[in-house]
Structures are given as structure tokens and as C-alpha cells.
Write a structure and sequence with these properties.
The protein is of the alpha+beta class. The chain is built from four helices and four strands; from the N terminus they run αααββαββ.
Length: 198
Amino acid sequence: MRNAPGASINLASSPFTAERARTAGVLAACAVLTLSLLTFTGLILGERHQASALRKVIDTQRTAMRSLQQEQARLTGILAKPENADVFSKSVFLNELISRRAVSWTRVFEDLQPVLPYNVRLVSVHLPQVPPSDTAATNHLQLDMVVGTERPEAAVELLSRLIASPLFGAARLVNQQPPTQNDPQFRYRISVAYVQKF
């Protein structure tokens, strides 16, 4: 039996599909996934190498710290001996004396001038006390001063300025005295941390 002219017959068991385009898409996806896998593998290996190097540095630092702790314990043991107590106390005294003599009083007053409000008068400044060496650096001092003012708010302003100043630190009000007949001003005793650039 003849087909009608112009009619086409598909003899394949399934209709024609674009196999080449699908294959190209699958190959492109595989290439992208392979590149991603290689990239992630490289990153993981790099991170492992960095972590290994960091662990070595940490181990080296821990070994050095243990060595320093042992040396400190040995030196502390030597200083703790009764025969060395006198030498140690003299050493502490001399170091404190040297630190006190290194204080420039001119510099103390120059550093105090910008932080003192116009209506606060500096009555006295006691010899700076050097804190123990384990709590502060040798250029950290503790100033003990007495100021006078007719307005209590000025003392609060002074404390705020001291705390905000880079040369001064923690400031605390030790005590206060009300005005008397002989002295019409409030008096405040203030203790403040002070760093002098030697």
C-alpha cells in the first residue's frame, strides 16, 4: 500500500530527540563538578598544611613558655631563701627609690595643668607611690593629691578629665572635707594612676 504523496514516516521505535545537546550539557556539568572538586581538594590540603604549621608554632611556643616558667621557678626559689631575703628587700627599696627620683615634678605639674578645671585649685601632691612591679610597669605611678573648689561639680569634672586623659587612668575619690570658717572651699583627696614619659 502506498503512502499519500508528501507524508513522512518515522521508522524509529521512539521519536527523534536532541541527543547531542543533552550529551554536551552533561559533559559541561561534569567538567564544572570536576573543577569544583579539584578546587575544594586544593583548599582543604592548603588548610591542612597551614593548620600543621600553626600546630608546630604553638608547640614551639609552649616549649619556650615551659622553659621560662621553670627558670622563673628556679629564680623565685633562689630569692625565697632566707639568706637572700635581706638582699631582695634592699633591691626592691633601691629600685623604688630610683623610680621616685626619676619623676620630674615639673612634668607632673605640666601634665596636670590641662586637666584641672579653671575653678579647681591644686592644694598638695604627695610623692608618687610606685606600684608593685607585678601589677604595673615601672613608669606607672600613683599620684595622691588634694584639690580645693567652691563647687562640688568641679571635682566631678576633674575626675572625668583624669579618666579621659591618656596620661592618667583610674581615679578615685579617697575622702572629702566640707568648707570651714577658715577655708571656704570643699577639699577632695584624689588618688589617680599616672604614666610619666621618662
